[in-house]
Amino acid sequence: MRIKNSKATDVWEKLTLIEYASHTTDKLFSNFKSAVSGILGGFVVSTYLGLSNEAYLTYTSIAFVLSFWDIFNDVLVGNIIDRRKKSHPRWGRFKPILLWLLIPTALLSMAGALPIKDFFPQAGDTVKVIYLVILYLVNDLVSTFYNAALTALTARQTTDNAERGYLSGISGILGSVIGGSGSYFVAIIAWLVPNVSEAVRYFYSMVVFSLIAIPATAFYIITTKERIVEPPRQVVPKLRDVYGQVLKNKPLVLITIADVLSSGMSIGYGFLVYVFRACFSDVTLQISVFGFNIGEKLQGFEAIMAACSAATIVPTALSLFLAPIIRKWISDKPLYIFTKFWTFFCYTGMFISTFPITKHDPTSLFLSITFWYALHGLTTGFYSVVPNMLQLTAYDYGEYIFGQRNEATVSALKSTLTKIASSLGAYLSSWCLVLIGYIKNGTEVANITTDTKQWLVMLFAIFPAVSSIFAIIPMLFYKINGKKQKEMTAELNIRRQKALDEMNSEEEKALGCTVEDLIEK
Predict the structure, then answer these.
(1) Dihedral sign for Cα atoms in the order 441, 445, 446, 450
(2) Distance between CA atoms of 393 and 488, rounded to whole angstroms?
(3) The pTM is what?
């Protein structure tokens, strides 16, 4: 594929409207897929495949062991990308990789949602476990290449901190709005095709969203420029030198540690759908608004989850509006610490107010969970922007100190550590699901006991509360902030422009025309 106009000639060149549009379009459709997957994806292994307790624990044990392969796989993949000696003057280093992997990534998303229990009812536990293990290995390799290259491309899109904030804001707003609306999509899908199982509905949804995301992502890749460029052939440092640079990049190390410690938040959120499916699938809530009992219209856990998400709309919208404004006066580090503390406050409040659930009828339990969940929405905008900005600053610091950014290697390394932490958490949560009796009785909602429901609510609250406090600790030592960050950025832009001018001068001499003329052609 011939990719035109993909190289900037000035590090201070502003993002074009097409770049903003392509970024927005890509995030829009990729978040649709992520929203549905985030709600129902965890059910594939634990519920939809119908595995026995033994088969379920066998697969989760294998997946946990395989996660340690990522220590070598992810880092190797990232280094392969960063060490590629050839970088096309217009195509850059990362776009070819992304375009090659677009369709395989989409197919793997569909394969991960395949309802084996419904489509192949004769398949036994052994077949299902083998399928899941093979899928895990293939998906791990492909997604590592794809995500590392995409992270590196995005990190080089602009040097302007304000524009980085705008892009992060767009991603955050779309991610929050669409992600928070995932339960609406699930409810709508259930309403559109009520006569098929939850698993089949999920599979059809992933097929549709995966196919739509392909052209949207291709549009983004093709139109994105790299304003932090490299010579077509650069001197590649030795692998040990790259790792040495990463380990000496203190801001990056601190951000990575904080991200790993934060993995408990996503584990806790994973219990949300279990809570609603177990506690509210077979009940009618008594919720009156202006004398009208809307609870009568909320049938099925999908609809009740949608009602919970509706309650978060106002605080989430307020947060998304305030985040870019507050960032003008308060730097990212204190905002990061505040968001983590707010998470601790909200989920601790949820735990205290819902324990024990035997004191609550379904309506009061729903209202209590929804209140604290909505209150947590006040930090959604900050979660959407601040962590990404801190990581970009850490990349800049590496370039400032060592002259090397190594985004793909860093992204892969962080991905490795996060995967291992997530795998450990998922493995522990899998054992929790077995020990509390969900795996044995979860395929039939009527068989889920009160004790199991209580444990699900507790796990949903405890994981985010504890992990958010742990994540604050490393960030207390993060120093690249305020004036120091501005001085670093100014110095880097001078260096970048000098390198870019030298590259353009050499190309013009070799080609007998200016770079601008080449781009026009």
Answers:
(1) positive
(2) 9
(3) 0.64
